[in-house]
Amino acid sequence: MLVIRYLAENLPVLLTFAGLLGLVVGSFLNVVIHRLPKMMEREWRSQCAEVLEGDAPLERQQAYNLVVPRSQCPGCGHRITALENVPVFSYLALGGRCSQCGWRIPLRYPAVELLTGLLSVIVVWRFGLSVQAGGALLLTWALVALSFIDFDTQFLPDSITLPFLWLGLAFNVTETYTTTQASVVGAIAGYLVLWSVYHLFRLLTGKEGMGYGDFKLLALFGAWLGWSAVPLIVLLSSFVGAIIGVGMIALRGHDRNIPIPFGPYLAMAGWIALMWGNQLVDAYLDVSGLTR
To answer: Which of 24, 25, 220, 260 is buried most, with the most CB atoms less than 10 Å from its CB?
Structure first.
């Protein structure tokens, strides 16, 4: 209790703690981003093998999850030691290279750690030492993982989106972020909005404009923030997606026929709504002359 009181009364110390915690979590998220898609692929292959081989014995695979095997250098197989795995600082100390073979470590690893640390500081600064901050931190960390996984693979894993959808409903049983009724309606509305857009787009063009993971992600935000946040998130994500998409086509020559994952834009918009959704809605209503 004394530690909690001390943190609550000393904002700089609390924010420093949040940043360090975010760096550590960011290091773990790098593992999730890299390994979870591979775990999903292994599971799919195993299921396909069971169907195709029937009662034939399946070849046992080496354990592969978020804990084992230990992380190692893709270049030489060197096992990463604890001192080489300190968030950001190890990257700087090693000069961005493997200590054994000199293989260049992707800059994205410390970038994910720094991003997670920064977002964690903003969350705690926004909500203080509270239950709201705890839930918002968990959601923020999940969104970082989902965004990078979707960017890499164009998948939004159910193993993250569905548990966090239920977690949002659970938090709002006690109306942590919105009323229970708004939370339930928000989850339903979030799913149906993009589900309707998906089927309308496919009917008009014969193409699939997005994946089912996007429906579940917007349903997740509806469960956390309520139905009134759904239109704001759709508008923000569409705006950000349009700007980045046009920029990629204009500046990098991105092929228009190659799909761009929508999940990261939804995640950005949802996080902004989590942080400042009420202020944005109020500002819009003031400018438009409308009332709540």
So the answer is: 220
For tokens 């000069």, name the residue.
Answer: 95
CA-CA distance, 165 to 222, in Å (whole number)? 8
What SS3 class is residue 97?
Answer: strand
The pTM assigned to this predicted structure is 0.91
Q: Which residue has the tokens 């209790």?
A: 1
What's the alpha-carbon Rg for the chain, to the nearest Å?
21
Q: Where are the alpha helices (DSSP H) in the chain?
A: 2-9, 11-53, 89-93, 108-127, 131-153, 158-171, 180-205, 212-225, 229-252, 263-288
- Secondary structure string (H, E, C) spanning 276-291: HHHHHHHHHHHHHCCC
Q: In angstroms, rounded to a whole number, what is the distance separating the alpha carbons of residues 144 and 132? A: 18
- Report which residue type is found at 93: A
Rounded Cα distance, 29 and 33, in Å = 6
